[in-house]
Design a protein that fits this description.
The protein is α+β, with helices and mostly antiparallel strands and about 150 residues long. The chain has one domain (about 5-140). The chain has 3 helices and 4 strands. It has a 4-stranded mixed sheet with strand order 3-2-1-4. It is globular, with a radius of gyration of 16 Å. The two termini are about 30 Å apart. The mean pLDDT is about 90. Bound molecules: zinc ion. Zinc ion binds near residues 75, 80 and 89. This is Mutator-like transposase domain-containing protein. InterPro entries: Mutator_transp_dom (IPR049012).
Length: about 150
């Protein structure tokens, strides 16, 4: 996938794992989940074609990204069938880019969970009720316990 370095995220999680093993007072990682759009979805018409979602840790002063992803509805390659490695489209044209907020959250939480390196203590987001609901459902489904 374009522009996202999965290896670096794993390194960052390994670093946090070390920090928490050295400092027993820290029991779990505080994180923040944020989404940016290429242009803001607004009033009925949805202009954004891209979103960028990241989970950033707030346990150390370094504020390391521990997971990130791009949802891109648009591919500029001429004659592209959207099946090749070089294709930059990572998200279905039929799905709303606003909904990527939630699908990327689930995807990134899955990445962190399956890597198994760190335990999440909290995942804060903006005041979006949609994301609060998504987090509640994710926790229930995966039997996890973190605050948000
Ligand atoms: Zn393409």
């Amino acid at each position: 996938m374009a522009a996202v370095n999965e290896r670096q995220f794993i390194k960052n999680q390994e670093y946090l794992r070390q920090v928490t093993s050295l400092l027993p007072a820290i029991s779990g990682i505080y994180t923040q989940y944020d989404v940016s759009y290429s242009s803001r979805p607004q009033g009925g018409s949805e202009k954004a074609q891209q979103s960028f979602a990241a989970i950033i840790e707030h346990t150390t002063t370094r504020k390391l990204p521990i997971a990130a992803a791009v949802a891109n509805r648009h591919c500029r390659r001429k004659g592209c069938d959207h099946r090749q490695d070089k294709c930059r489209k990572t998200y279905s044209s039929e799905k709303s880019i606003a909904a990527s907020e939630r699908s990327l959250l689930n995807e990134k939480l899955n990445n962190v969970r399956t890597a198994g390196l760190i335990t999440l203590r909290s995942v804060t987001t903006d005041a979006s009720t949609q994301l609060a609901k998504a987090l509640r459902e994710y926790k229930a489904e995966k039997n996890m316990n973190f605050s948000h």
